[in-house]
Amino acid sequence: MSTALVMFLAFIAVTLYITWWAARRSTGSSAYFAAGRSLTAWQNGVAVAGDYMSAASFLGIAGIIAFQGYDGFMYSVGWLVAYLTVLLVVAEPLRNAGKYTMADVLAYRLSPRPVRAMGSLSTLTVSTFYMIAQMVGAGALVSLLLKDTGLTFHTAVIGIGALMIVYVVFGGMLATTWVQIIKAILLMGGTILLSLLVLNHFGFSLGNFFAAVTQVTYHDAQGNVVTQNFLTPGLRYKPPYGALDLISLGMALIFGTAGLPHILVRFYTVPDAKTARKSVVWAMLIIGSFYILTTFLGFGAATIVGRDFIAKNGGTNMSAPLLAQTLGGDLFFAFISAIAFATILAVVAGLTISASTSFAHDFWTNVLHRGKERSPGEEVRVARVTAFVVGAVSILIAILLGPNANVAFLVALAFAVAASANLPVIVLSLFWRRFNTRGAVAGLATGLLSSLILILLSPSIMKGGAVFPLENPGIVSIPLGFLGAALGTLTGREPEAEEKFTELNVRANTGLGAEKAVAN
Amino acid sequence: MSTASEPNERERSNETIRSADWERVAAMDEFRSLIAAKRKFIAPAVIFFIVYYFALPALVGYAPGLMSRRVLGVINLAYLFALSQFFMAWIVAALYVRAAERFDELARKIIHHLQRQSQGRVKGGE
User: Fold this and answer.
1) What crossing angle do the helices spanning A41-52 and A172-201 adopt, rounded to 10°?
2) Residue A129 needs a FRET pair 20 to 30 A away by CA distance; which of A201, A284, A349, B126 works?
């Protein structure tokens, strides 16, 4: 049995113990969906960071920087700055005015059933695409890393899916949070260690390190030897549309993060808005440090391991693990690989709980049964069944797509939908008195459809014959989402929604009447 | 109704607020100054960070020559500007947390005000 497998099994054992512990403590809806709203600022902050630093960050970013240099680092920047939108605009009002989901805030002053139905649909869309991307990535990674042990893509996907279902179904938000915290600490530890090894390789001289980055040598597609300065922009995003694509990507990141359901639900797990604010700051410290360190991970892989070797040994996504192997030997390689699995496992668990919460709370209880639980605990039971179904469906789709599916477009789609559909309606319902139900439904529908259609027409799917020239649809679909919401609103008046704006405004800004923590 | 443990501020405030009271709170001077104070910080902060952030992809995309200029040893302007974004985000966050202490203070005042009013109402014998 390989060392990586042993380390991964140890992680599974610890997290299953946490799930058992959480399952014994967790009773009632607020405990299941929001960890009793009793997490502290650092706990939630670390968990937010854990939810955010997915396989796409750890493996993907290191890979893009290793292959395309500076342009990859642009992702790192956007992923942190995005938290200013969360901190300044969304986190506190959401905590003050909502209960379990994003749609709670919308349903506050708008007609609840249509708004919740649409909100739930867009939440499920974002979560599912995000999750399938993680599962496909996980499966491919496992089959590469553990090919000696005989684990295949299918077994890997099924194993990860089954574990995630166990965490969410039995442990709820409390277990998911602690899985997230442990993984975030492991990931940060691994990243710091790997960065130190890279610096050590260059005699702890930043000068030597960056000098090497300006002279990266590799073979291009034609087999010619090329020497490139990897600090130069434009290796990925080239004219004529590169600049627009970069701006479009930036928009999706900056406005999408504040619309990601699995990040938003985290703000319901703390006792009040002030703690929500502090937890964003904790998250920003961790996320920022992590993304700065991607400099060493990505450029380190480019200079020390080299593009040629990575391309022959598993491709871009293997950059960080291969860097670990080169610098720290097989044991460190196993450790970094185990962290990568833990990352994927924790993120899919976070996505599953936000999807199932939205389905149970928004769609089942509030849309189908008009806000009443027919029997005590029904909402939690429905969420557990949903978690099971969501998990099973994702396993199935991931297996159907196979290990070579293009996962980049799935993640791009998740961010684009979050930015184009969710964010406009959240912002408008908090700040625009006139905003109404028609506007919310129109905004959600326009944002969802336009980002979906533009991705289908983009080079990610249509390759050379793309109708829409950008990989990232945000620059068009985000304004369309706002436009849809504004036009929908202006075609009708809803006196009740305007009246209730006062109440929402007072609640969101003072915390009067906010959901309380339950005593443990 | 009495509980064994002392209810916290927010729990008490829940009991004192009624549905018709929202309009009254919204009309309070304290509430208006809270909203004004928040707007005064948040609006410029959001505009600043959005302009600062989008300057990066715009300059990198449209002025690659300028951004490739080496300014610190071999390190170019593009990398330094990207790195500065991290510190910009942390500084804006820190400034916001400091400003928010004052927002919390104003919100506390509103809640105290409401409690005094409702106690007055009870003593007056509704």
Assistant:
1) 70
2) A284
Contact A231 B79 (CB under 8 A): yes
How far off is chain A from B126, nearest CA to CA, in Å?
23
Strand partners, A219: A225
The answer to pTM > 0.95 is no
Name which of A32, A119, A117 is nearest A368 in CA terms: A117
Contacts of B48 in chain A (CB under 8 A): none
Domain ranges across chain A: 3-401
Q: How many CB pairs under 8 A join A and B?
A: 155
Q: Where are the domains of chain B?
A: 23-121
- Compute and round to an integer the Cα radius of gyration of chain A: 22
Judged by a CB distance cut-off of 8 A, whether residue B22 touches chain A is yes
For B72, phi then psi, to 5°, come to: -135, 95
What is the β-pairing status of strands B70-72 and B75-76?
Answer: antiparallel
Give alpha helix (H) positions in A146-171.
Answer: 153-166
Neighbours of A456 (CB within 10 A): 16
In CATH terms, A3-401 corresponds, of 1.10.10.10, 1.10.630.10, 2.60.40.640, 1.20.1730.10, to 1.20.1730.10
From the CA of A231, how many Å to the nearest CA of chain B? 7
Nearest to A175 by CA among A36, A42, A276, A297: A36
- What does the DSSP 8-state code read for residue A361? I
Closest-CA distance, B31 to chain A, in angstroms, reads 8
Tally Cβ neighbours within 10 Å of residue A336: 28
Q: What are the backbone dihedrals phi and psi of residue A471, each rounded to the nearest 5 degrees, phi first?
A: -70, -35
pLDDT tens digits for chain A (520 residues)?
577 778 888 888 988 888 888 888 767 788 888 888 888 999 999 999 988 888 777 888 888 899 989 998 998 999 999 999 999 999 999 999 888 888 888 888 888 889 999 988 998 888 888 888 888 777 777 766 766 667 777 888 888 888 888 888 888 888 888 888 988 999 999 999 999 999 999 999 999 999 999 989 888 888 888 888 999 988 888 878 888 989 999 999 999 999 998 899 899 999 999 999 999 999 999 999 999 999 999 999 999 999 899 888 877 888 888 999 999 988 888 888 888 888 888 888 888 888 888 888 888 888 888 877 777 788 888 888 888 888 888 888 888 887 766 666 677 778 889 999 999 999 999 999 999 999 999 999 999 999 989 988 888 777 777 788 888 899 999 999 999 999 999 998 888 888 889 889 988 898 888 888 775 4
Distance CA A306, CA A329 (A): 17
A372 in helix, strand or coil?
coil
Structure tokens at A170: 């039995």
Chain centroid offset of residue B5 CA: 31
- The interface predicted TM-score of the complex, written ipTM, equals 0.91
Closest CA to A347 of A414, A282, A404, A301: A414
Position B53, amino acid: Y
